[in-house]
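Interim report, section 4.2 (structural modelling).
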Amino acid sequence: MKASQFFISTLKEAPADAEVVSHQLMMRAGMIKRLGAGIYNYMPMGLRVIRKVEAIIREEMNRAGAVELLMPVVQPAELWQETGRFDKMGPELLRVKDRHERDFIIQPTSEEVVTDIARQELRSYRQLPKNFYHIQTKFRDERRPRFGIMRGREFTMKDAYSFDRDAAGAAVSYQGMFDAYKRIFDRFGLQYRAVAADTGAIGGDLSHEFQVIADTGEDAIVYCPTSDYAANIELAEAVAPAAPRAAPGQALAKTPTPGKSTCADVATLLGLPLQQTVKSLVLATDELDERGDIVKSTVWLLLVRGDHDMNEIKVGKLPGLKAGWRFATVAEIEDHFGCKPGYLGPIGLKKPLQVIADRTVAGMHDFVCGANEADFHFTGVNWGRDLPEPTLVADIRNVLAGDPSPDGQGVLAIQRGIEVGHVFYLGTKYSQAMNATYLDANGKPQLMEMGCYGIGVTRILGAAIEQSHDARGIIWPASIAPFAAVLCPIGYDRSPEVKAAADALHAELLAAGVDVLLDDRGERPGAMFADWELIGVPQRVVLSDRGLKAGTVELQGRREDAASMVPLAEVAALVKGRLSA
Amino acid sequence: MKASQFFISTLKEAPADAEVVSHQLMMRAGMIKRLGAGIYNYMPMGLRVIRKVEAIIREEMNRAGAVELLMPVVQPAELWQETGRFDKMGPELLRVKDRHERDFIIQPTSEEVVTDIARQELRSYRQLPKNFYHIQTKFRDERRPRFGIMRGREFTMKDAYSFDRDAAGAAVSYQGMFDAYKRIFDRFGLQYRAVAADTGAIGGDLSHEFQVIADTGEDAIVYCPTSDYAANIELAEAVAPAAPRAAPGQALAKTPTPGKSTCADVATLLGLPLQQTVKSLVLATDELDERGDIVKSTVWLLLVRGDHDMNEIKVGKLPGLKAGWRFATVAEIEDHFGCKPGYLGPIGLKKPLQVIADRTVAGMHDFVCGANEADFHFTGVNWGRDLPEPTLVADIRNVLAGDPSPDGQGVLAIQRGIEVGHVFYLGTKYSQAMNATYLDANGKPQLMEMGCYGIGVTRILGAAIEQSHDARGIIWPASIAPFAAVLCPIGYDRSPEVKAAADALHAELLAAGVDVLLDDRGERPGAMFADWELIGVPQRVVLSDRGLKAGTVELQGRREDAASMVPLAEVAALVKGRLSA
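Predicted structure of the assembly:
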C-alpha cells in the first residue's frame, strides 16, 4: 500500500487527557480518536492492528475447534432477567428501552444469549462438546473510563463459551482453550503470563488470567522463576512458616510510642525490624433483615505482620466473612477497643471479639502490637502467655517477593501485568439458571457444564504498547504491527531512480507476502522517520539517491539504534527474514 | 473443514412467523436464529456468508481508494444535535442515556461522526479527496420489523463517506463509488440493476440505488431493455404524449353510474376502455403557525388517467406541495365538491381549487370523470370546451410497462427489486451543519462536498435468496456461498475406502483454494443431500463404495437436476473449474 492511498495523521503532542503512555502514543500515532468519554473511533492505522489481532485469534480459535457465530449488540432484557443479571448488575450494564418501551441491554458479554442458543440447539449428548465464539462490540458503562482504550466503555472482545456433558469434559474444553490462548499470545509476540486467578462467587479452581507484562499494569502477578507457578496476587498462597513458633524470649512490656501510629514508625522508634510488629485491622459484618436493614453487626480483629498487606479476596473467603464485610467504623472500634485507631491490638479488649491471625503472625514470638491505649504499644508479646491463641489462623495476606513458592519449588517473584485474557470454568451457573439441558445417553436431561473465555481485542493494543515503547514511540511486535515494514524514499517525487527503486522494492515485498507501506507523501526525511518511529513499524528501509548509486539502502529495525547499509538486491530477503525471525 | 468441527442445524419446517421465502430458508438452513423482534443471531452457517460478502466489499472499497476505519456503535447525542437529526428523526433512532443521564444514540448511520472526524483531520485541500468507510453494526428501531434480516432492527452495513474540494470533485468520487459498487455486485454473482433514485430533500441528480432483481422485491424498477435507462419508479419520468390533443368528438353528457365509484367499474359499465377515464385525487396542504397549529388549509385536485397510479414522490416536488401534503378529509372534499368521494371530477366545483393534471390527462379528449353528484359521471369531457385548462400540467404518475423511455431509445419495462446499495451525493448538507471546512489553495476556508455510499451487508443475504432459490432450498452464487463445495461420503465411518478417498479429495480441494466442507456427520444419504440442497452449496460430490470401485464419484451442481459420474482423479479440477466459471 502507498501512504497516499491510506490515512496517516500524527501529533507532536499528546492531548492533555491522555494519562498513560499507551493512550498518549495511540493518540499521537493517529490510531484512535476520542468521540466521547471512553468511546473512540478506530482510525485506519489502529484498525489495521485490530484486524491483525482478530485474525490471529480467529485462526487459533478455529484450530481449537471453536465455531464462530455473531450474537447481537442489542439484546432483549428477558434473558438477562432469567439469570437475574438484569437487576443484579450495576449501572455498568447499559439499559435501553425501544419504541415500544420494552427493555434491552447493550451487551457487555453474551452468557445469556449463548446459553439460550445452546438450550435450543444442543439437545443431545452427541452434539457435545461444543464451543461457540464471536468477536463483537461490547459496552460497559464504566463510572470513570480511563487509560484510553484500556478501560473504555465501548470495546471489542472475543468471547467464547464451551458446553460439555460433564465437569470432566468441561475441564478438557478448558485446557483446550488454555492451550489456544497460549498459542494466540505467543503469536502476538507479547511477553505474558498465564496466572491462576480468583474464581469469585462461582468457586472451583479453574480460572486463569492472561496477563501482558508491563510495569504500568494494574495487576500484581506472582510467579516462581524456578517452576511453573504463577498466580494473580489476589489468589497466590502465602505458605505457613516452616519453622515452629519459638518460645518467648522477652517479657511483655508496655512501651510509650507517642504519636507513632504506624508499624513502620513504631519499629523505627524502638529500633526493631518491621517484621517484628503486628498490624491490627478491624472489620465488621452486618446481619440484615428482610427489608435490608441492619439487625446486628459483628466486629472482627485481623492481624497481619507489619510489613504485610491484607488480601481482601482471601479475607472474603473466610467463614463468617464470605457474605460480605466492611471496615469497622471509628465508633465500633472505640466501643470494642476503648481506644482510637493507631494503637490497637489483641490484648486487653474492652469487648470480646473474633481474632483472626495471619499464618505468619500465628508463628511469631516477642512481637510488638498496639496496647489499646493512645501513644502506647506492647513489646515482647507472646501467644498463649500474654493472650489466648487466635480464634482462627488463616492465610489473609498478600505474598511478598522472596516468599516461598506454594509448589515448594523456589521463592516467589512479583511483576505487574495487564489482564487481556481470561479463561473461566463456569460450571452450571448459567445452564441451571436458564435450564439449559441436553439428553444424555439414557435419554435423561442433564445440565450442561460451561466455560467462558474472553480476550479484550482492543485492550491488546494498549497492553502491547505499555509493554513495548520508547521515547520515540510505539514498538509493535511484527505480527500485529499496522505495517510490518515501511519504505521511506527520499525524493520520491524528484528522483526517478529513487521512485523506480522504491516502487520495485514495494512490489517485491508485497509479492513476498510482506505487509509493507511505501511512504510517498513527500515529507521531509526527519518528519517521515519520526512518524514511523512513533507509529512503531518494525522494519524501515530508506532509499536515497546517494545510497542507490552504491547499490545500497538503509535498513533499520525499530529496536535498533542505527541503520545498516545493505545491498538493494538483498534487502527484501533481509526484511522478510527479520520479520519471520 | 469437516462438519464435525462446524455447526449445522437444519429444520424441516420454517417457523410460523417467517413470512418471506428468504426468511424461511435462512431459518431452516440454520443461518440465523431469532433473538427478539428484528434481532437475530448469525449462526455459523450464516456468518460465513456475511464474512464473504464483507471481504468482497472490503477488497473493492480499498481498490477504489477508500480507507477503512471503525466508528462506534454508541454515539454521543451532541453531534446528532448539531445536525438536528437527534430531534428530527423519529423513534427509529434508538436513544439511550448513560449512567450520568447523558444522551447517546445507537447508530443507524454515521454521517455526523465521520463529518466530525473530517472537520478535525482534513484541514487542507491537499488532503482531499478522501473517502472513509466502515463495516459496522447498525440499529434502526423499525416500527414493524419483518422479512427476517431484510428489514431487521440490528443489521450490518458498510457505509462510506467521501469528502471533496468541490462539486466537480464530488462527482468524480461518486462515479468511483458507482463503479466500485458495480464490481462488488458483479462479484456477488447477483442479477442487479443500478437505477437512478430520488434524492429526497437534498436535491441534485446524483443518487443511484443498487437493486437486486427479485419478484418479491418491494421496489419497482423501471428500465429500457434497448438502452441504459434505469430508474426507481419513484423517479422514472412519464414522458408527455407525443401526439397533440385531439379535437372534441363527443358532446358532454351526464350519465348515471349507480354504485360505480371506481374508474374500472365505470369503464366496464359504459363499455369504454379504462384509458378513457380520469381519476380525481384530492390532496390538502396546511399552513402552520409558530406553535405548529394549522392556520389555513388548501385543497388540491389532481387528475390521473384511470389506469394510472399517482406517484407520491413526484407530487411532493410540485410547487405548493413541496413542504408536505396529505390526502384531504371527507369533510374537506364535500365542502369543495359538494359530493362524497367516488364521483368527483373537475367540472362544477362548489369552491374553486387548484387543478393539477397529469401530462397524459392534459392530452386526453372525450374522457370520462365524476360529475360531483353521487351515482353520476360525465362522458365526452373536453378541456377548454367543458372546463378550463388545468392550473398546472405535470408528470405526477407512475410509468407503466410499454411507456416510451425518457431517453427516447425504446419502451420501458418494469421489474421488482430489493434495494441493497445506495450511492448518494450529499453536497454540503452535513458539512454546512457541522462547519466542516478545509483551507483551499488560497488559505480560505471552504465547505467540503460530501457523498455517502451504503451497502446492507446482512440484507444481501436475504436478497440473494429471494432472487435465487427453488423448492429444495437456497441456491447461492459461488462467491458468497457458505461453502463453495461439499463432499458427501456415504459410509464415511464404515468404509475405509470411502473415508480415504473423501479425506484425500478434501485435502486436494483445500490445497487448490476451494472452500470445501467434508460432511463427516454420518447422516443417511437422503438427509445429508437434503441438508446441502437446503443450505444451497453450489457443488456437491458424493463418494460411495460402488462408485469408487469404478474410480468415479458423483458431481452435481446445485442448479442441476441430476449428478454426473466423473472420474475421482478429475473431480477436483472439475469442481474448481465450475466454481471459477
